[in-house]
Every structure is written in C-alpha cells, then in structure tokens.
Amino acid sequence: MVVEGERLVTHVFEALVPGYRGWHWAVTVARPPRGRAATVCEVELLPGDGALLAPEWVPWAERLQPGDVGPADALPYLADDPRLEQGYEATGEDADVLAIYELGLGRARVLSTDGRAQALTRWYDGDHGPHAPAAKAAKAPCSTCGFFMKLAGSPRTVFGVCANEWSPDDGRVVSTDHGCGAHSETDAPRPAALWNPSEPVIDERDLEVLSAHAVAPEIVEVADAGAPGEPSEPAEPDLPGQIALEQDAEATADAVPDLDAEPAPSTDVDAPSPSTDVPATSQH
Predict the structure, then answer these.
(1) How far is CA 208 from the centre of its chain?
(2) How confident is the model at residue 77 (pLDDT cuts 50, 70, 90)?
(3) CB count, 10 Å around CB of 227?
(4) Would you tell me which of 151, 211, 222, 229 could form a disulfide with 155, CB atoms 3.0–4.6 Å apart?
(5) DSSP structure class, residue 129
(6) In degrees rounded to 5, what are phi and psi of residue 66?
(7) Mean pLDDT of all residues in 51-79
(8) Neighbours of 177 (CB within 10 A)
(9) Over 70: is that where the pLDDT of 154 sits?
(10) What are phi and psi of 5, to 5 degrees?
(11) At 52, is the pLDDT very low, low, confident or very high (cuts 50, 70, 90)?
C-alpha cells in the first residue's frame, strides 16, 4: 500500500491475467472526511520488474530502412538532407580528365553506335524506364531529383544513375522520365495524428433495465371520421330513447315541490262544540 495523501492510498495487487507476467494492479481509493465508505478513484494495470513490454516506439521516418520503399510508396521531403548540396556549388572536376575519358582513350574498344542504341532501348523499355509501376505512381521524374547522376556522353540526355539508398532503383541506370517515391523534392502526406482512433465498441445486448412507474394512458374518445373527401352522413335520431328521457324528466318535475309558488289560503273550519243539552233518559 502506498499513501498518496490524506485519506488517499493506493493498493497494489499482483496481476494474474494470462500474458501479463510481471504486471500489477494499482487501485487508488479515497475516503471523504467523516465518511466510512471509501471511493475508488482509478484502477491501472502497470508493468513491474520483468514485465513483457513492447519495444520503444520509433518514428516512421527513423524506422524506415533502405529497400523498404515500394513502387507506390513515397518518402517525406527533407529540406536539410546532408547528402545533397546546391547545384551551383558542385565543383572540383578536372575538365581535361573528363574530355580524355569521353574520347575513350586508353581502351582497346568502345561501344559502337548500334551497340549503344540497343542498350539504351533495352534500358528504356525495362523496369527502370517510364513504363514501370513505380514511375507511373511517382509525383516527379528522375530528371528533377537531386540523387540523379547523369551518364557521360550522348546517353546523358536520356539516362542517369540513381544514387539514393532509399530508392528501390539505387545503383541502377534509370531514364530521365522514370520516378519513384524517394524523390528528393516531393513530399508525402503527413497525418494529423500518429494513429487514427478506432470507433467505440458498444455492446447493445448488455442493457441496464430501469424500473418506472406505469402511467395509465388517457382514454380519448375520437369519433369515427370518414375517409377524406367523403361527405359525412347525419346521424339518425333515437326516437325511443328521447321519449323515455322526456317521460323521466316530467316525472321528476312532478315529484319536486315548487318552492316559489305562493301557499294556498287556509280556511278555518269550526269544530263542533259540545252540546249542553243532554237528552233525557227515560226512567222507567
């Protein structure tokens, strides 16, 4: 356990996940003031001594080796390439030595006109001419590349030698209209990020079921409407029902007294007074 701060500690556990030998889990928990339950802040899987790790990442430009450039590949532009210099600064050649070499002095035989023409035609129609897949995919021809070394004599107008170790044509005779992805003046598109993040993976089958109170739907009576454009027919009156309703209304009116009516005048009826005359009873 590592104490990170006040009420903040990190517990370390050995990782038992297959393939992660030497790794360990680090779980950081915190407890609020006057609280009893701790809260998990973060969980990490960290390498330890003897952990199997990937090699240190090397940028693509530094990881690339000669021979890795294919016909459809392109190298990034290097503004300060130590292998190149400005054309007007290239000096140091003896003009007399070049002239003697061009004439072929010191050699018993040199190429004839036919032999030279056959060689140039074979080179031009081969894999290092303008019809090669790399030349069709290139952004610029070899004639504008700083690594293009022209041949001596008459072939210099059509052919040269590639001197770029990153090019698949390094050390080979190429035509001036040939090309590849290792051109000294072209550039490759640079991505905005080192890698493109993948889309998130969403498990739609693992759903969290939430309980909700059922609400009774409101019952709305909607009259049956006819089809659009059809005239509505008037409803037929229910005569027996209307007669029964009228009779019930009359009976109710008769049973309820009219409170607003004036009371009828009362008539005094004299009760018969007891007679004082008592009939005589016959005495025998």
Answers:
(1) 24
(2) confident
(3) 5
(4) 151
(5) S
(6) -60, 135
(7) 80
(8) 15
(9) yes
(10) 180, -165
(11) confident
| Tokens at 68, concatenated | 């890795």
The answer to whether residue 121 scores a pLDDT higher than 70 is yes
pLDDT of residue 64: 79
DSSP state of 253: H
- Those residues whose C-beta lies under 8 Å from the C-beta of residue 273, and which sit 6 or more positions away, are none
pLDDT of 251 reads 61
Residue 266 corresponds to which amino acid? S
What are 46's strand-pairing partners?
24
Report pLDDT digits (tens) over 184-231: 988 877 777 767 778 887 777 777 767 766 666 666 555 555 555 555
Do the beta carbons of residue 158 and residue 173 sit within 8 Å? no
**Which residues have CB under 8 Å from 162's CB, separation 6+?**
142, 147, 148, 149, 169, 170, 171, 172, 174, 180
Q: Are 137 and 72 in contact (CB under 8 A)?
A: yes
Alpha-carbon gap, residue 59 to 32, rounded angstroms: 45
Given CA atoms 101, 105, 111, 114 in this order, what sign does their dihedral have?
positive
What distance in Å separates the CA atoms of residue 39 and residue 28, rounded to the nearest whole number?
Answer: 9
For the sheet containing 23-30, what is the strand order?
2-5, 8-14, 23-30, 39-47
Write out the two tokens for 217. 């739907």
Q: How many residues does the chain have?
A: 284
Residue type at 146 in one-letter notation: G
Quick one: tokens of 7?
């009420």
The per-type count for the chain, helices as H runs and strands as E runs, is: 5, 7
Q: Which helix (H) or strand (E) holds 246?
A: helix 239-255
The closest alpha carbon to 70, from 202, 169, 210, 204, belongs to: 169
Contact 44, 2 (CB under 8 A): no
